[in-house]
Specification:
This protein has six helices and six strands; from the N terminus they run H-E-H-E-H-H-E-E-E-H-E-H. Helix 1 packs across helix 6. It has a three-stranded parallel beta sheet with strand order 5-1-6, with no helix packed on it. Strands 2-3-4 form a three-stranded parallel beta sheet, covered by helices on one side. It is about 25% helix and about 15% strand. By secondary structure, the chain is α/β, with parallel strands linked by helices. It starts with about 25 loop residues before the first helix and ends in a 7-residue tail after the last helix.
């Protein structure tokens, strides 16, 4: 899903508004932290960043087998589930990250497949992966697995797909674009849709964002010194 959420390169993030840490296993990083981050945009009178808009026509670029299945999940690590990979020999990966941050030897040593190294893991299963980066992403493109990649050119694919996997990656994508995520899932022209880890819509309140912004302003204003 972060394929559709443009971010500036670190050197162009002048106000450090997108200098975000990520931790997928933390509910705080998936939910609560976004209210804090949104408050900084509001305090600086900046619009909350949103999607590129490409998600609205993305499904039109593909054709699907009548028995195709859509799997969706919070974590990209869930793609390594046996039921998802069964019969898969090639993955076309549209992602803002290459997810090959560890070598297969490192993955085997850890005994765990994560969202950051699933590409390395599936290549060990003789599954080929081709990464398509969004056009806005021009940095951090190389991974240890040295998987092939190119920037997406928006072309249509003629070969019918039998399986689709979409992950929300809530530690990377803001809570305020969740409505668009669920709309994206709903509009996928695939009959069978399977929720792999019971993800649900996150709740976002602009009222809480403004209240938090006021609290920050109070803290930063300090306390006046009595000069008597």
């Amino acid at each position: 899903w972060d394929f559709f959420f443009p971010l500036p390169s670190p050197e162009n993030d002048i106000d450090f508004l997108n200098d975000w840490g990520h931790q997928e296993g933390s509910q705080f990083m998936i939910n609560d932290i976004w209210t804090v981050r949104a408050s900084y945009f509001v305090r600086l009178k900046k619009e909350l960043p949103t999607t590129s808009g490409e998600e609205s026509t993305f499904w039109e670029r593909f054709s699907f087998h009548p028995d195709a299945i859509l799997y969706y999940s919070e974590s990209h690590a869930r793609i390594y589930k046996p039921e998802v990979l069964e019969g898969i020999h090639f993955i076309w990966n549209f992602d803002a990250h290459h997810d090959a941050y560890s070598t297969i030897n490192e993955v085997i040593a850890s005994g765990v497949v994560t969202c950051q190294d699933w590409v390395s893991a599936v290549t060990y299963n003789n599954i080929k992966v081709k990464n398509f980066f969004p056009r806005w992403k021009t940095w951090d493109l190389q991974g240890k697995a040295a998987v092939p990649y190119q920037h997406d050119n928006g072309k249509k694919f003629q070969l019918p797909f039998r399986s689709v996997f979409v992950c929300r990656s809530g530690a990377w994508t803001p809570i305020w674009i969740d409505e668009k995520f669920w709309d994206f899932i709903e509009k996928c022209p695939v009959k069978d849709k399977i929720n792999l880890d019971d993800i649900s819509p996150r709740q976002f309140s602009m009222e809480k964002v403004r209240e938090l912004g006021k609290e920050f302003e109070t803290l930063q204003s300090g306390v006046s010194i009595d000069k008597k």
